[in-house]
Amino acid sequence: MGRTIPTVNQVLEQNREQWARFYRALRREDRELLDRLFDGAKYFTAACVYQAHVAPTESIFLAMLLHLQKQIQELEAKLEAHNGTPASVDSRSLPDTHGDGRLDPVPRRERSLLPKGTEQ
């Protein structure tokens, strides 16, 4: 019988196992953060499957980043609702090129990863 391709969840767990030595070297609170990163990647397994990437680890890492970005946006929205003003990035931690919290001068619609004319 031929081998089957492992599922994204199986690849995710294999990656978790491959990082076991790194994990053990971390402090307890950092281990919890790494666990949360791997757990957050599970929210985007459908996108990882759709990508059908030769190196699925890259898709997993991108899913982790996407989950973190989503959490950041949710926190910014909560801050904005609480303060009544838009949440902005602390200028001491990141360069603010526009004076309004935006870091990328390229308009959002021009940064799409989708080919031109296929945006939804």
In short:
With 120 residues, this protein is mainly alpha-helical. The protein is built from five helices and no strands.
Radius of gyration: 18 Å
Alpha-beta content class: mainly alpha
N-to-C order of helices and strands: HHHHH
Largest sheet entry: none
Shape: flat
**Total strands:** 0
Number of helices: 5
The residue-averaged pLDDT reads 79
Percentage of residues in helical conformation: 55-70%
Determine the strand fraction and express it as a percent band.
Answer: under 5%
**Low-confidence regions:** 105-109
Distance between the termini: 41 Å
Descriptive overview:
This protein has helices at residues 8-18, 20-25, 28-41, 45-51, 56-83. It is mostly helical. It has a domain at 8-88. 8% of the residues are buried.
Name a few traits of the molecule.
120 residues; single chain; mainly alpha
Topology of helices and strands:
Layout lengths: L7 H11 L1 H6 L2 H14 L3 H7 L4 H28 L37
